[in-house]
Please model this.
Amino acid sequence: MTQCDPFTQNYMNGILLKYHIIRVFYILVKLFRKGLSVLSSRIYRYTVLSLLSLLLLSWDPILCSASSGPADPFSFSSAPAAPVYSDISSWAVTPKDTARYPVDVLFFYPTTYFDDKNWNQSIKEAAIDKKIPQWIKSQAGIFNGSANLYVPYYRQATIYVLNAPLNSNNHHAMDIAYDDVEHAFDYYMKNWNKGRPFILSGHSQGSNLLFMLLKRRFNDKTLQKQLVAAYVIGWPVTQEDLEKYPHLKMSETPDETGCIISYNTQEADSPVSIVIKGTVAVNPLTMTLTKDFVPAEKNLGAMFFTEDNVQYIPYYTGAQIIDGALIIPRPSNADLLQTSPPGFYHQYDYTFFYCNLVENVNARIKAYLRKNMPAK
Model:
């Protein structure tokens, strides 16, 4: 069974040929942005993500074998068994001592399942998936020292679901993944929360599912009151979303609570983007909606994680929100980054702004506790 990990592999062989292929996709995306503005954001989202998926999955035909996904169409009857969240083995991480911090955080990891044997990863597969703890370390690590961490395993959808036709039943694989996220959240709230404030965080598919949870469940005033912040990083939030779900709001100040922090990192001429028409983004260097360029001097430091080491680089990059995307200049170590394609920094959304995120988590927790839990 061939596996392909497009977000963590550096496919630089044959770079000249692939560069020209990328430019073709770039032109197509530009045409779609101009020509499909009258279509719904759902169709636009599908179109861009389909292009993204096709590019990622064809980036190295030797490694990816040009697979189009599982041989059989999705069916609920063939989905892996649902997790039982009362069983601790259904959780990748739970805290040892919840008395250590007054705030909890639920983190939903990004896509790690690039297999083509099933539309959803089983919980047994997730438990031995070495990429999951790596993402937890490099992304959820921003909460170390500030909050009690909970990370549920969930039956994530394979990357190939992005390449399924718009009207295909294969998209129901995302319903399976969302069901798990919602059930994990419900189990946490019923059994472990005990009225405590909490943070929600994710990346990529995890943020997609988290955003679905926010839209569907957080019109509840009690949940709104307990929410410190939601880090919906690596997934677009649009003005249309905010208007349709008025209980959702974007961060306007670094210490605002009950709000969403969302952005997607790329270069200005990135050949692909997951940003869609009407995307609203927060600049992680200011935690505001400013569209001004913010210089690298405001970057407290990037953190690059490997299995055996961590590299800290202060003042790593400046950034600016342009047309809903977080645009950065070409990093000084760009040749060493594992990007597919070059200029698309999806997997580094946390990495490049890691220390700013750490500081911001602490700032929002302090603001929340000051406002809602005054000292006796």
